[in-house]
């Protein structure tokens, strides 16, 4: 995989920031030069082979390099894994996911895996027990100190240590494995994807085709076989759910137990502090586990979609949406399919959940009655929404859009205004009203006067008990309809079983996210006119220079200035089509176009650059207050509060640098969100 | 060819080639950091973001204190980050810490005893590794066997030497000969073993150093004042080494 200059710089900085200089130097050269052996690495880095071996061992341990042993030449090649290096920047986010879903213990496990790259179950458990023992000793010491000071009067009440830490740990690890946040690993995982492909291709060619292939048909055949083999290989590596110990998901025999969350609550655990009981699950102590970045990205994407739903529709609807996404999360192992491994030709309709499942899974604490106002039913036409949209092709969607959008928009307006929570949804004038643009000609239906009269129906004072199940299910269905009716296409109805089945077209919604971010960027950089021109070109394709001023309702001169400016930035480009063989300027058509893919690549690159500048700035800022920071790192002061040993001036400096760190890292986190939208989701 | 399609016949709008006496040349250098035309304050961090940053920083801190982290060895920390080519990139790092020793700041002082230890190469001794996952050529690094090879090599050289000496002095194999051989074998020849043991030695070493400083040197020889013009010498006598007490 070729990397841009800025991506290389960023990855090198990230490795440097986390694992130090030696590893970073090796990693940079590997990124720049491709795969290398130790002698060549030594030549390029000027490091001694001994140092290189140590550095490479760290990199292998942290999954940052692939290696490949070539038996013919008896050499080992090393190859950088830039994806894993980039994921270092998301470590905070991933730990936060684990914490918010499964509690502090899970956060600790994930954090430990980040520290050690990969580790065995045995090590994780023993590490946890050792830490608990240490904490216990510390607590006892403090207790003694406190008692010494206050006499024996006070006996501090503290949470007792869990009686069976090993069992607890095993259960938690199983839970994490089931959710897919961590995955078991085998030695083969260190072979880079290309090497794996080559190896299998070679073997297939020998075994099935007798060493050589002829013609395109056989070629295709071989490709397909390799793909299948790779697919099987990957599924072999995945964690197989044990499944027997706990009730299966979607098992409605007992009525309520729909999800793990509910199960946990029924175990008598407090929601905020997930206290796990030992359910007897034991994992193979020698099993190796590591973090599964692909699945983490899926979870991050779901979080992003929930935020979007919350911004566009409302908090309650977002909660319903979140529960729905959680239901299908298990069946979504990764965000983007790999054309070399996954079958991209005939995809089945994505993962599905039904309204009934969702009703069972949704936490009781979500008040589904809120969030939607009501409007007299004859004013709403839900026929279009109830209809199951079978197709998932974009072409078909575009066809439907023309007629369906009128009703949907109307419905949206009606419902959105009547947001019972008082959360007035942000209706983005740009994304919502593309009918406002002069070049859009299907703008004949939406008139404010057609808006139905809305009455608020407040469910809040109603007691929970009175709310029966049917009612709740209907309310949830309304929320789902609302999500399906939104312009972004949060959901798509695809069946009628269980009061309606729903699926999510992730591709469409990701595209929506990308377009939204791109529009923001264009508006910031090129103003209203540039933004309008770009969106016109995106919608209508290549446009003749002479048409543009008429369509955009801007003067010719302004259009030209703006387009030239945008061309300089690489956002738009021009294609010349000569009308005759003379190729004179007067007889040539100039077509302007806006290449979405190219713009997102440019954007991505500038984000990488921006992120590395942030890290460099962070480094400089830290160096400026080196003295104060060195003080906090002293071995005797590690666990002390800075207030105890610093004077006011030093404290001020420390707080200042901490504030700067926070704002820079916050900025990096937000940029990372953009990278995720354009690259990973 | 590339500029043909820009659609700006006749150059920039309103610019001609005629002489304009009223025009004034801007000769002032432009500002190095001109104010940003469209700078906005970012939205304040949400609680979730703050937690994420907290986790990130905690993880970083833990890695940095751990055995796998290697400290920077840049000679000049303030050098510009931009480099041209591999050579320049490599040259900014120190290759041999002994050759790059800075006599002014490099000598360890008593107050530095609490500074965190500097890892030059990652330490693998503290934790178990699953060797199966590593390529074979990295195994010596994981086991600390890198030193063994050196030792073997030197042992062999010693043997050769011994054999040679034995050949020469074959006639009088006495106690002296045996003693010399013993000495030769007992010479600490192992670089890496030294490095591993450094931890234990360091503490002891500091003790010795500081004692030595206190008693015999007394700050008489201060490298930084070596080329001063002698004026401070009178007070330097008393105050030179006081910092360490």
Automatic annotation (TrEMBL), chain A:
Gene Ontology process terms (BP): DNA-templated transcription
Keyword entries, A-Z: DNA-directed RNA polymerase, Nucleus, Transcription
Annotated ranges, domain RNA polymerase III Rpc82 C -terminal: 172-513
One Pfam short name: HTH_9
Subcellular location: Nucleus
Residue numbers spanned by region Disordered: 146-168, 244-264, 385-446
Residue intervals of the DNA-directed RNA polymerase III subunit RPC3 winged-helix domain: 520-593
Compositionally biased residues, Acidic residues: 398-413
UniProt biased composition (Polar residues): 147-156
InterPro entries found in the cross-reference section: POLR3C_WHD, RNA_pol_III_RPC82-rel_HTH, RNA_pol_III_Rpc82_C, RPC3, WH-like_DNA-bd_sf
Protein task: DNA-dependent RNA polymerase catalyzes the transcription of DNA into RNA using the four ribonucleoside triphosphates as substrates. Specific core component of RNA polymerase III which synthesizes small RNAs, such as 5S rRNA and tRNAs.
Description of how the protein assembles with itself and partners: Component of the RNA polymerase III (Pol III) complex consisting of 17 subunits.
Similarity-based family: Belongs to the RNA polymerase beta chain family.
PANTHER family in the cross-refs: DNA-DIRECTED RNA POLYMERASE III SUBUNIT RPC3, RNA POLYMERASE III DNA DIRECTED -RELATED
Name of the molecule in the record: DNA-directed RNA polymerase III subunit RPC3
Source organism of the structure: Hyaloscypha variabilis (strain UAMH 11265 / GT02V1 / F) (Meliniomyces variabilis)
TrEMBL record, chain B:
Annotated Gene Ontology cellular component terms: RNA polymerase III complex
GO biological process, one term: transcription by RNA polymerase III
Start and end residues of each stretch annotated as Disordered: 28-104, 164-245
Ranges of biased composition (kind: Acidic residues): 189-245
Domain of life, source organism: Eukaryota
Keyword check for Nucleus: yes
Pfam families: RNA_pol_3_Rpc31 (PF11705)
Keywords: Nucleus
Bias kind Basic and acidic residues: ranges: 46-55, 164-182
Subcellular location: Nucleus
Protein family per UniProt: Belongs to the eukaryotic RPC7 RNA polymerase subunit family.
Oligomer status and interactors: Component of the RNA polymerase III (Pol III) complex.
Function field: DNA-dependent RNA polymerase catalyzes the transcription of DNA into RNA using the four ribonucleoside triphosphates as substrates. Specific peripheric component of RNA polymerase III which synthesizes small RNAs, such as 5S rRNA and tRNAs.
Name recorded for this polypeptide: DNA-directed RNA polymerase III subunit
Native source species: Hyaloscypha variabilis (strain UAMH 11265 / GT02V1 / F) (Meliniomyces variabilis)
Lineage: Eukaryota, Fungi, Dikarya, Ascomycota, Pezizomycotina
